[in-house]
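Hi team, as promised in this morning's meeting, here are the two structures we talked about. I've kept the exact order from the run log so nobody has to guess. The first one is mostly here for context; it's the second one we should focus on when we meet again. Sequence first, then the predicted structure tokens.
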Amino acid sequence: MNWLSSWGNGPAELGGVPCIEARDIVQEYESTTGRRRVLDGISFRVRRGERMALLGRNGAGKSTLIRILAGILQPTSGEVHADMSVSWPLALLAGVEGNMSGYDNARFIARLYGADVDEVFDFVASFTELGRRLHDPVRHYSTGMRMRLAFALSFAIDFDCLLIDEALAAGDARFQRKCHEQIFDRRPDRTLIMAIHGAEYVRQYCNCALVLDYGRGRVFHDIEFATSIYATL
């Protein structure tokens, strides 16, 4: 596609403003049909306070890129640089240890990130509204309870950059409002990188978008133009 061929020389220097930067990210996998390149030379910078949407069809590499930015997945080549704290993918269930209680998970996260254990647990207890169940092993939780805990653990640490992998519609309407408030109202100065399908979220909350197609990608600062391209994919 022509719009992907005009990547150019990348973003301008940001004059020391904290940012997260992807540099020529390539990700390849072995498949039954041979080696497949999911991401092919993806580069961008997002500075403190900016909100970037990742747009693309299913299988375009959005979740793969989020996992690379989080440090969960090592790219085939390229690198990620961040001079700000970056979250794991929001509500990552894989990060919740099933044999530990909700309380023990909160205590582990607090110690890992140097946060106050009591403050983290108090936040998790208030946000999840799970009561005494927080002292039960997580393996006995329902899927919804696990999701509440995963979101709470993500919000309990005050990251500079939040990574969101299509998790905004989890839970009931009340819980979605609580998550929305934490992301968009209580953290107005935080960087957001969101892999998302809802164009209304992109238009309302994002000031740039990375559109992915067939492994290639380009950043647009015209949100209406980016969503119109996405609609044609």
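And here is the second protein, the one for discussion:
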Amino acid sequence: MAGEAGAAPVVRSIYAAFGAGDVEAALEFIDEAIKFSPSGTARRLGRDAPYYGHHGVRQYFADAARTWQELRLHADTLHEHEGEVVVHGRVTGMADGEPFARHVVWVWQVRDGRATGMRVSDVG
């Protein structure tokens, strides 16, 4: 249980850094070998494959900045369980002049104070 206590603050820190557009601050909480699968927003970027490692997360930030005029993540609830943090929330934004809003569930794997994996499911 001790490892779980630190998982939610790690994820909250990543969301705060993302909201500030600060990839380097986010990377402080992300493992070098992360498998980062932001499927819904990534598809909008023309990408189906996950991003890997710090280079991949930097690439995702660059791709998102180039494509989205606005992109906001709303982490409404966080639940920890055995090294995972399940986040229910929403993604809102604007791309190509069109508004975008989806309810999503993010699942983060956290180990030793770093996110090692992230996948997201679109729930409509």
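Starting points for discussion:
The chain has five helices and six strands.
The CA atoms of residues 35 and 68 lie 22 Å apart.
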